[in-house]
Amino acid sequence: MNVSAAGLKKLFQEHLDLSSTKLEDVAKSFTKLYVDYQGEGVKKVSVQTVPDTRYTWIDPPSGRSQRVVLFFHGGGYTMGSTADHMQLISSLVLLSGISMLGIDYRLCPQHRFPAPLDDAECAYHWLMEDQKRSPEAIGFAGISAGGLLVTQLICRCQNRGIPIPSVALNMSGPMDLDFDRSSCTYNSERDIVVAERLRNIQNYYLPEEPQELGDELHPARIAYQQYPRTLFQAGDCEVLLDDNVEFYRILRQQGHAVHLQVIPNMIHCGQMFSRIYRPGEIAIEGAAQFLKDSFPKL
Asked: For residue 114, is the peptide bond before it cis, meaning its omega torsion is within 30 degrees of 0?
């Protein structure tokens, strides 16, 4: 089975309960859809939860690698989990040979920004301090909302003097929570998500009281002294396409080693459906190769 972008969009519309006002119902429909389209790869990796944490190790059949990637799932900060994203994670692990540590960060409505970012930072410290991994052996990866966490965590590292990781992979992540770039309009009929729904994230995710967190909410606005070797990856049918292109250009102008891969005919988070969706498969192959090639030799 191999579906087109229009076919995948139809699959979403037929299987997702987006009419419900209950976040739990919407989350369950997403989880079921993701699990229904998982492939055999999820059975080939080793999955191990870390006691008393929100962390899950996903290792290749050869065992835990020297290099490790922190993975942040998507879901608009209201849903999602490492388990939901296991098709994507296991594919990246098997193709790259690199272990991943999935982070189930805290979600809305119980927890607002910066709780997910705080959890991401804690996981990074845990890897460096508890697991004795050097920053050179650590990468960040995320999809959609998790992609923004990747760039926000890099921003926080610079602001707080925390060592920068070697590698970053941003899959279909927004540049900030403004959702006002041109692709939000010209791709609105092609993508599964619309800008209006994305802008609603501000209402439930941002804190009610103003905080001095402007840089972290807009990580593309600052000048970086150092930035990981990064791949920005998006589909040409995505409303968030221009977010990725613009952030990539900003960092290139600052002289950083960043790369951009635009996947033809891919809608938002097509990577999640690589088993049935060729653009998603192409995206995962490119992302895995980037991870495999980008870490320094240890």
From this structure: yes
Provide the residue ranges of all domains of the chain, joining segments of one domain with +: 5-209+228-294
- CATH no., domain 5-209+228-294: 3.40.50.1820
Question: For the segment 168-196, what is each residue's pLDDT rounded down to a tens digit?
Answer: 999 999 999 999 999 999 999 999 888 88
For residue 219, cis peptide bond before it (omega within 30 degrees of 0): no
The residue whose two tokens read 């009610």 is 208
- Helix or strand run (H / E) with residue 229: strand 229-235
Task: Say which residues have a Cβ less than 8 Å from residue 173's Cβ, sequence separation at least 6.
Answer: 142, 143, 144, 145, 146, 147, 148, 149, 150, 151, 232, 240, 243, 244
40 secondary structure, DSSP code? G
Give the separation between CA 274 and CA 186, rounded to whole angstroms. 25
What does each C-alpha distance from 88 to 62, 198, 284 come to in angstroms? 19, 22, 8
Least confident of 11-25, 99-113, 232-246, 264-278: 11-25
Span 84-105, pLDDT tens digits: 999 999 999 999 999 999 999 9
Summarize the chain as % helix, strand, coil (round to 5): 45, 15, 40
Question: What's the whole-model pTM score?
Answer: 0.95
Six-digit token pair at 202? Answer: 């501000």
